[in-house]
Design goal:
The protein is α/β, with parallel strands linked by helices. The chain is built from 6 helices and 5 strands. Helix 1 packs across helix 6 and helix 3 packs parallel to helix 4.
Length: 127
């Protein structure tokens, strides 16, 4: 990884929300290796509870999940005002139109399948 990229992520608090534990583990490892402080949530309800208790710089959120989908998390995050984390929607099901992304104050939208380098680059753009 590029050291300039690592410097931008280092120390950033990132919430990763996905219902697939394997994906949470991989994203957590990649981002932690770059120096980020990573918190994970297995569903939307867990994510909302974490957002109520803590402040995050960045949130990476899946859309399709049981127990509170990504849209419910994004709607809650929008209510946080200036404490809303910058948001990357990362989903295998990108049934998400640009108008909806803008309405929910989503900063970036991407498909779930990507390399670790691509993930770090996207997160750096938000950092």
């Amino acid at each position: 990884m590029n050291q300039n990229n690592s410097a931008r992520i280092k120390g950033k608090s990132i919430l990763v929300v996905d219902d697939e534990e394997g994906i949470l583990d991989v994203l957590s490892i990649i981002l932690s290796d770059e120096g980020a402080i990573v918190t994970t949530a297995l569903n939307g309800n867990q994510a909302v509870e974490l957002l109520k208790k803590s402040t995050f710089d960045i949130m990476i959120c899946d859309l399709t999940m049981p127990d509170g989908d990504g849209r419910s998390v994004l709607k809650f995050a929008k209510t946080l005002g200036d404490k809303k984390p910058k948001t990357l929607v990362c989903s295998g099901n990108l049934n998400f139109n640009p108008g909806e992304a803008e309405e929910l104050l989503v900063d970036m939208v991407t498909e779930k399948v990507m390399s670790g380098d691509d993930l770090v680059e996207l997160v750096n753009q938000l950092a």
